[in-house]
Amino acid sequence: MNRFGHLKPLTNALESSKEDIIEHWLASNNTSSVFAGYDIGIEYFRRNFADGVFEAIIGLIKWGSSITSSEGFERLMLFVNQKMIRYHELVLLQDSLRASFVTSLYDGGSLSKNSMDDIDAVFAVVFKEVSEHLLSKVVDFSEMYEREKLKNIRLLNEYKKAVDESNIVSKTTPKGIITYVNQQFCKISGYDEDELLGQPHNIIRHPDMPKEAFREMWKTIKSKQPWKGVVKNLKKDGSTYIVDTTIVPIIDVDGDIVEFIGIRHDITELETAKEQLKLLNFSMKKKVSELYDMTQSLEQQASTDVLTGIFNRYKFDEVFEVEMKKAKINGNDLCLILFDIDHFKDINDTFGHGAGDIALSEVAKIVAKNIKRGDIFARWGGEEFAVLAVATSLEGGVSLSQKLREEIGSNHFGFVNKITASFGVSSYRQGDSSEEMLKRADDALYAAKKNGRDRVESEI
After folding, report:
1. Which residues are catalytic?
2. Model confidence over 88-125: pLDDT tens digits?
3. Which residue from 289, 301, 294, 317 is spatially nearest to 381, judged by alpha carbons?
């Protein structure tokens, strides 16, 4: 017998307002709060469940059918189970639907004391049937929970197995006492499991590891943050291994650290290779530096006169050609001075070649101190020298030569006593070759010697 058969007029009013009722139901605060908590889209719920729930209640009123046997309700209960919606939240959904029924009757002008009582009676049956249905499923929910729990435990065990197979793993108390090590840890450290359990983790600490690194590690993990870094450890036999390490603090429901899990990868070979490469690079750099110094030394020897330390003729000729080209292109002044020590053979014959060498060195020092930076000074051969005075005119070259002659002539050369020198000067002429400029300077030097020595002559 239908308990609500007398409510046919009420049913007609509700059916004609179906869309408004559903719209009001889905828009209510209670419904919205439940949807938001489970990330349920309103349109999704409208499309899949709202109509079914409404028709189930209308069926209850019109034919007295059980609401829990309707297709719409079955779909809703499956959805509730999947989302694990709490019972009190399901009650909120039912209550907001009841309020939507009442609002519809009120807006349609059909709400009376009797119709209000009828709606309350209908939803009392709805609440009763839903509650009984849920209670009948408690055992099923519990079994489902246990099945899921066992499934998750199996998955966790598989994950643990995968981690243990591919990593070096240990667990410690918050104070660093070892409570678990896997076989990979024992294998690389050389310790048996029973030698490690209960020991402080610094049993494998390498003396080369700085204390600051561990202070930073403890500071990080005690602040409940993971720490990552490269650690050098000590094996039982005293040898070294290196691991790329991640230490993760495990936090309980109260926010306290209950243990630390360390996961490591062996990078000993990689670090050893890097160190060897570093040493090889250092050796190569050292060797390159030695070769560079040797090259520089050879170049210097090839361009320097051994006795006086100034350029030799080979280097002078090289620089002379360069300066000639500059003078030709830029129109710069360039002056060449050739000079030699007067009666140098007499010095060697009278005082010996050692005295002659000293005289050559002393003359080179005097000239080097009195020419300007950028001028080129070289031993031309034997007792003869050359000065290439850049950016210097013929007059400037003559003036410089007079100064050098006077400095040499006024210097005391020990047991040789006095030394004089003769000078020949030429200047660059546009279109000159180095041979032409050199010949004019050489001719001027010959004239200085012919005219009595200890004097300066310039090109004609």
Report:
1. 383
2. 777 888 888 888 888 877 777 766 667 777 778 878 88
3. 317
